[in-house]
Specification:
With 374 residues, the chain is mainly β. The chain has 1 helix and 28 strands. The strands form 7 sheets. Strands 3-2-1-28 form a 4-stranded antiparallel beta sheet, with no helix packed on it.
Length: 374
């Protein structure tokens, strides 16, 4: 009797020890998985948007909270186009009034270099270690002329009324402009070709889209837009590299080009289209129409209009968030950045950004009217 009780107690103790060992082993196996998940959460929490404001500096928005966390002093007036380096360590901002770009350390928020590029710099695009900056040397102060009206600069007989613009090429390691590419008068949007060998430029003053060899600066092709519409502004390549789109502000159209820069067709838009972008999958096209106060959405294959999202005043440029869940649209005369659900295509909130917000880019990089996801 005593022996049988001892045997039962021993068996019970062994079962309890086995159970404890099993639980401990399971917990030990779960620990590495929890550790592996942590970096992804930190990456999401660290995503930011940079918003240039023409009357001040650059606002930084925390994309986890959709709140402005800081304002960067660019040490110059008239910030417009901006771009982030691939590693996110530098922000390059075009400043209109002093004809330069400010290079900002994103960790400290301090300007580490100002580089002169030319009169009225506007767009900034970065490829590897080089920044490309468009300019408008023949642009005059004041609002653009109305469609069909005679531009203000044509009131004089000046021979320099349509000065060819220079696209400054900046070596970011040297911190200096190393050369220039000659564009058309009042260069506007900049885009890299799918193979990265050519630079595609919209020239609003002479109604052309021009294609240039990046290495030599040589003009490869000129596409006149006047018969389709005037004032080409935004320019974007599709994710598959087969299509280029240019917005024609005074044509109320999108000009569609094939991979060899031949005109394929036009697509009607609402009044005065400007910023344009594909989504990351290349399935939809988004267009910010200024006077119509709409963000229009088109099917990228059929060009059928899918949706119109009511926006605000002078909404020119926008960017997806890095997770592709939202679109941030800078609306200059509403002092706001609208937050738009990218699936529902509805404005869900807005971030107050004063002093005329102009452009917006994110890090990690995302699709947008000023940038392209890597």
């Amino acid at each position: 009797m005593l022996n049988s009780q001892l045997v039962r107690r021993t068996r019970t103790s062994l079962l309890l020890l086995a159970l404890v060992a099993t639980v401990a082993a399971c917990n030990k196996q779960e620990e590495p998985a929890a550790e592996a998940a942590a970096p992804a959460a930190e990456s999401t929490a660290g995503a930011v948007a940079y918003v240039s404001t023409q009357d001040a500096g650059v606002n930084v928005i925390n994309l986890a909270t959709m709140q402005v966390t800081k304002q960067l002093d660019v040490k110059a007036q008239g910030p417009r186009g901006l771009a982030v380096t691939d590693d996110g360590k530098r922000l390059v901002v075009a400043t209109r009034e002093n004809g330069s770009v400010s290079v900002i350390d994103t960790a400290t928020g301090e300007v580490v270099k100002q580089i002169e590029v030319g009169k009225n710099p506007e767009f900034v695009r970065i490829s590897g270690n080089y920044a490309f900056v468009s300019s408008e040397p023949s642009a005059k102060a004041g609002p653009p002329p109305k469609p069909g009206a005679k531009p203000a600069e044509e009131d004089d007989d000046d021979d320099d009324e349509k000065i060819p613009a220079k696209i400054a090429v900046i070596d970011l390691t040297k911190g200096e402009k190393i050369r220039e590419i000659t564009g058309g008068p009042e260069t506007e949007g900049l885009e890299f070709s799918a193979d990265g060998k050519q630079l595609v430029i919209t020239n609003e003053a002479d109604n052309t889209v021009t294609v240039h060899n990046i290495e030599t600066g040589e003009l490869v092709k000129t596409i006149p837009t006047h018969e389709y519409g005037d004032r080409p502004r935004g320019i974007k390549v599709s994710p598959d590299g087969n299509t280029y789109l240019a917005t024609l502000e005074f044509g109320n159209k999108i000009l569609v080009l094939d991979k060899d820069f031949n005109v394929v067709r036009t697509v009607d838009t609402a009044e005065t289209p400007y910023g344009i972008a594909y989504d990351s999958k290349g399935e939809r096209i988004f267009v910010a129409t200024n006077k119509a106060k709409l963000l229009q959405v088109f099917d990228a294959k059929t060009f059928e209009k899918l949706k119109e999202v009511p926006t605000a005043n002078r909404c020119w440029h926008f960017s997806f968030t890095p997770d592709n869940k939202n679109i941030l649209l800078a609306c200059g005369k509403s002092d706001a950045v609208l937050v738009i659900d990218a699936d529902k295509l509805e404005v869900t909130s807005q971030v107050e950004v004063k002093n005329m917000p102009w452009g917006v880019v994110t890090f990690p990089k995302a699709m947008g009217s000023l940038e392209r996801a890597k």
